């Protein structure tokens, strides 16, 4: 695997956020320019984009738009839903946040133009959140900045400037993660729940709350010997996770009500009669043949090759982290190493700081919060020091026993993100249409953190940087050329 290269650690320059904002804006202008250019000089493979029949509920309406030619691939579904609602069974595979947003603002302009504006603005905001999250987790402003710039020019960039839901998902997912690691759990839950209204994989963000809940409950039960507190933590974690799933479940219930309720038995679709009527799973399986190992066919080899760069990068980032922190990785952060505390400490502070049962005074809580791993100041401190700080006994905190913080991609704080990436990559490879992996994984922070940590350092690491940037640039141009002209891409 790639050897770790080190760099000097410097405080973040004040202009970093300005650079991030400029990178995000320039990347969107580049993509829009390429889309217009390639759409102008080439003829589309599929010329059916301008065909947009009237809504079933309003057959006399006209839905033509100057941007109708730009409505390609899944954009057809999103714009159709914005204009006509959910008319057909297969349209329920596309979640409502983007079409509803376009429809709610339809008094300003037509849905195709609004979708473009919403997505490009959402991507810019997502980039700012990405930098803040990276700075908080990595505790290295240079790596955080490089990772964010790479995200701004990521290989799936075409989808972030098209009528797709990737930009809204990235904004809500990354924003939720930033608020999550900043101890604003309720706000994070709201962001995560909305991300599940943009893309179905948004519900997987509940995994971060589950990770946090496991470690908090473990700490309360085995370190503090507080069964009641552990039970309280589990209940709160379960409720928060349920809130993340709730919008997606509600949308599936709406689909069941629309497609199944009030119909005669011989008119009902097969999934309506199932013990657990899951519309989304049925659509993916029936219309797109999505399922475990279904895509493992010789004729799909080109699509596996198309997805191989992003899957290889994901695999390298996971293996590199696992080899560098084997005990943390294998034990899901419950085991400690000889030099550093477990990554489970990362998400412990909220309950310790806020639980009334612990008798925490406001002053001590502020001191602990300033020292927790949820800020970019430090990522580890031992349990004895935390206990002394909570009790207000700062003088007896054993500073000399604390291990030094380990900033960058190999910090313990990265573990839950790597686990999340591993699950997503496995799903993309074994279950989904594999070529979708490029955009499916494009909002996963560990990919860019890993790439940033190896791509701009001296000597042997330069070649990896060239390869990663060449990959991104190539896919940006290929995506702009193929996707905008209705050719298969990802």
Describe the 3D structure.
The protein is mainly alpha-helical and 490 residues long. It is built from 20 helices and no strands. Helix 19 crosses helix 20. The longest helix is centred in the middle third of the chain and has 33 residues. It is globular, with a radius of gyration of 24 Å. 44% of the residues are buried.
Write the layout of secondary structure elements.
Layout: H1 16-41, H2 75-84, H3 97-104, H4 111-138, H5 141-152, H6 157-160, H7 166-181, H8 185-198, H9 206-223, H10 227-259, H11 279-288, H12 301-324, H13 326-330, H14 349-354, H15 362-371, H16 383-390, H17 415-430, H18 437-440, H19 445-455, H20 462-482
Pfam family, one: Mannosyl_trans2
Membrane topology: Multi-pass membrane protein
EC number: 2.4.1.-
């Amino acid at each position: 695997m790639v050897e770790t290269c080190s760099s000097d650690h410097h405080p973040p320059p004040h202009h970093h956020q300005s650079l991030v904002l400029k990178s995000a804006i320039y990347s969107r202008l580049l993509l829009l320019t390429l889309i217009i250019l390639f759409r102008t000089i080439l003829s589309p493979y599929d010329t059916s984009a301008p065909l947009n029949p009237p809504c079933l509920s309003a057959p006399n309406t006209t839905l033509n738009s100057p941007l109708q030619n730009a409505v390609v691939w899944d954009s057809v579904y999103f714009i159709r839903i914005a204009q006509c609602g959910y008319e057909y069974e297969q349209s329920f595979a596309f979640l409502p946040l983007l079409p509803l947003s376009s429809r709610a603002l339809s008094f300003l302009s037509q849905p195709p133009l609004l979708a473009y504006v919403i997505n490009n603005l959402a991507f810019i905001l997502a980039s700012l959140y990405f930098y803040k999250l990276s700075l908080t987790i990595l505790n290295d402003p240079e790596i955080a900045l490089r990772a964010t710039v790479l995200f701004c020019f990521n290989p799936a960039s075409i989808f972030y400037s098209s009528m797709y839901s990737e930009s809204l998902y990235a904004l809500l997912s990354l924003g939720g993660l930033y608020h999550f690691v900043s101890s604003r759990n309720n706000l994070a839950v709201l962001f995560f729940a909305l991300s599940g209204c943009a893309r179905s994989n948004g519900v997987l963000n509940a995994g971060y709350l589950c990770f946090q809940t496991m470690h908090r409950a473990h700490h309360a039960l085995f370190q503090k010997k507080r069964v009641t507190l552990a039970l309280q933590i589990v209940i709160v974690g379960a409720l928060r996770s349920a809130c993340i799933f709730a919008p997606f479940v509600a949308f599936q219930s709406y689909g069941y009500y629309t497609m199944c309720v009030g119909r005669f038995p011989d008119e009902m679709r097969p999934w309506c009669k199932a013990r657990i009527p899951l519309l989304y799973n049925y659509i993916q399986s029936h219309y797109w043949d999505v399922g475990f190992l279904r895509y493992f066919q010789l004729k799909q080899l080109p699509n596996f090759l198309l997805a191989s760069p992003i899957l290889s990068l994901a695999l390298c980032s996971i293996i590199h982290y696992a080899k560098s922190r084997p005990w943390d990785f294998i034990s899901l952060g419950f085991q400690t190493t000889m030099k550093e505390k477990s990554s489970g400490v990362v998400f412990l502070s909220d309950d310790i700081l806020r639980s009334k049962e612990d008798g925490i005074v406001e002053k001590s809580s502020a001191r602990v919060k300033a020292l927790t791993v949820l800020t970019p100041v430090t990522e580890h401190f031992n349990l004895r020091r935390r206990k002394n700080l909570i009790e207000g006994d700062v003088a007896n905190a054993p500073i000399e026993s604390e291990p030094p913080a380990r900033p960058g991609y190999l910090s313990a704080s990265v573990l839950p993100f790597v686990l999340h990436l591993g699950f997503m990559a496995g799903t993309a490879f074994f279950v989904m249409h594999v070529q979708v992996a490029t955009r499916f994984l494009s909002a996963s922070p560990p990919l860019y953190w890993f790439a940033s940590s190896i791509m701009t350092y001296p000597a042997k690491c330069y070649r990896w940087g060239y390869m990663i940037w060449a990959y991104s640039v190539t896919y940006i141009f290929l995506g702009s050329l193929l996707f905008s002209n209705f050719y298969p891409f990802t």
